Amino acid sequence: MKELRIGLVLYGGVSLAVYMNGVVTELWHALRASQARASNGAAALDGTALIYKDLLDTLATGSDTEELRIVVDAVAGTSAGGVNGAALAKAVVEGGDARVLNTVWIEQADIDALAAAPAERAPLWLRLGAGAVTRVIPMLRRLRKSIDRLPGIDWPWARDHCFGLATAKSGTVTPLSGSY
């Protein structure tokens, strides 16, 4: 039996999220088709998984052609690509559905829904006043030095996420929700 072994790297960036989600979904369908051929379980297949199964069947019909199995060895990604990769890895390992993010990326990740108007972010800093700001600046400098010494975290990331969480209107906002 021949194996098509895949090491998948998914680039980050929300602008690529929908595209990468499509790649992940199609790869998941191909993996399902390959697994179904190995276990003779084609009845559970639907959509493009059936097409991938037919393609694998066609490739295996030649007299000197060996069976072909598709395997994903590694999945890596950054930002939104990492989220898509995690969904694929979970679906492969646990037998779940890699399409879980389709609705999120296509319907809910619209830039208008994710972007906050600048006026919504300003009031917290405007309410502090000049006296509070002059007391806070030395404390922030010390905090920045502490954060810069930590491996894997830098000041811009910590600053932006803390600011987003502090100015969020909902108590359910997390750094990964994209809603601040």
Short description:
The protein is mainly alpha-helical. 61% of the residues lie in helices and 11% in strands.
What does this structure look like?
With 180 residues, the protein is mostly helical. Helix content is 61%, strand content 11%. It has seven helices and two strands, in the order βααβααααα. The chain has a two-stranded parallel sheet with strand order 1-2. Helix 1 (14-39) packs across helix 2. The protein is elongated. It starts with a strand and ends in a 13-residue tail after the last helix. The model has no long low-confidence stretch (mean pLDDT 80).
The total beta strand count reads 2
Structural class: mainly alpha
Spans of at least 5 consecutive residues whose pLDDT stays below 50 are: none
- N→C terminal distance: 50 Å
How would you name the oligomeric state of the polypeptide chains in this document? single chain
Largest sheet: 2 strands, parallel
SSE string? EHHEHHHHH
Average of pLDDT = 80
Rg is 23 Å
Keywords:
180 residues, two-stranded parallel ribbon, 61% helix, mainly alpha
Topology overview:
Layout: E1 2-10, H1 14-39, H2 48-59, E2 68-77, H3 79-94, H4 102-108, H5 111-114, H6 118-148, H7 155-167
Parallel strand pairs: 1-2
